[in-house]
Write a structure and sequence with these properties.
Layout lengths: L11 E8 L5 E4 L2 E8 H13 L4 E6 L19 H12 L4 E6 L12 E2 L5 E2 H18 L3 E4 L6 H11 L6 E8 L6 H7 L19 H13 L3 E5 L5 H10 L4 E5 L1 H12 L5 H15 L3 E4 L2 H7 L2
The structure holds 5-azanyl-4-oxidanylidene-pentanoic acid (FVT) and magnesium ion (MG).
5-azanyl-4-oxidanylidene-pentanoic acid binds next to helix 8.
Length: 307
């Protein structure tokens, strides 16, 4: 009766991986229980999770090496993997909210989220131009929300303007506003084979030591037209979620990232923790910190637990 926060299935967004081909369901080694699905099997899985009450999914594409290039041209191919996948999902289950990732790292041969010059410097503004094309192609395919995860400056405003100009006035923007340069993304990069080939992402993602900078980043994204703002990762950044929540009236999302997932799975496999209780405690802590929405690879398991 006096409990202050309750985790429900409505809070959950399920990140899912799509790969080319047919009849593919390949488990990700460092993320046991998560799979790369080909479209046919992905549609079945989505039907199942929708039935369990999960209302939203976030899609990530696994792009074969031979389709990657220096500038990520496949990212805005109108018939690309993500675009085809979104079309098929919206046709099969129009009610499910489809969120697409806007960033170049799955598509670039170097694994960075942006275009890179000969010295290895990330080129912010030319990258934003590509991100705009990518977001428009996803909106054209039927995405409900585009989710720029690249951390380039000015991309939220540029994408909002382009979406409105092309008539996609009802497509929302979930902004990865405070995204830290985190070692907790390791297993995700295994899932997509997208680890950067040189350097790191510290010139565009945030320093783990900074908190005020997160508030500055969300302020900019809100001013540029974000509809939902995100803090990522979640568990090591609960203080940031809390500060961000008190600084805005927009919905706040937290990304319970792959490394957070893998740590719980590994300890549970060793028999060292009570998996179910640790999952529920972790996700509840994110709600307590102020998250309205949680992107989590545990979404399906949690939906089953909460039934
Ligand atoms: N742009 C999406 C991610 O970087 C996900 C990271 C993770 O789950 O580790
Ligand atoms: Mg920013």
């Amino acid at each position: 009766m006096v409990r202050e926060n309750t985790l429900t299935v409505n809070d959950l967004i399920y990140p899912m991986f799509v790969t080319e081909g047919k009849a593919q369901k390949v488990e990700i080694t460092s993320m046991p229980g998560c799979y790369r699905y080909s479209l046919d099997l992905l549609l079945k899985e989505i039907a199942e999770v929708f039935e369990l009450g999960i209302n939203a999914i976030a899609l990530f594409p696994v792009i074969p090496e031979n389709k990657k290039d220096d500038t990520g041209t496949q990212s805005y191919n109108p018939d690309g993997l993500i675009q085809q996948t979104v079309k098929a999902i919206k046709q099969a289950i129009p009610e499910i909210v489809v969120i697409t990732d806007v960033a170049l790292d799955p598509f670039t041969s170097h694994g960075h989220d942006g275009l890179v010059d000969e010295n290895g410097t990330i080129l912010n503004d030319p990258t934003v131009e590509v991100l705009v094309k990518m977001a428009l192609s996803q909106a054209a395919a039927g995405a409900d929300f585009v989710a720029p995860s690249d951390m380039m400056d000015g991309r939220i405003g540029a994408i909002r303007q382009a979406l409105d100009a092309e008539g996609y006035i009802n497509v929302g923007i979930l902004a990865y506003s405070a995204k830290y340069a985190s070692a907790y993304y390791g297993p995700f990069r295994d899932a997509l084979d997208s680890a950067p080939k040189f350097g790191d992402k510290k010139t565009y993602q945030m320093d783990a030591a900074n908190a005020k900078e997160a508030l500055k980043e969300i302020e900019l994204d809100i001013a540029e037209g974000a509809d939902i703002i995100m803090v990522k990762p979640a568990l090591a950044y609960l203080d940031i979620i809390c500060r961000v929540k008190s600084a805005t009236n927009l919905p706040v999302a937290a990304y319970n990232v792959s490394g957070e997932y893998a740590m719980i799975k590994a300890a549970a496999q060793m028999g060292w923790i009570d998996e179910k209780q640790v999952i529920l405690e972790s996700l509840t802590s994110m709600k307590r910190a102020g998250a309205d929405l949680i992107l989590t690879y545990f979404a399906k398991e949690v939906a089953l637990m909460l039934m």
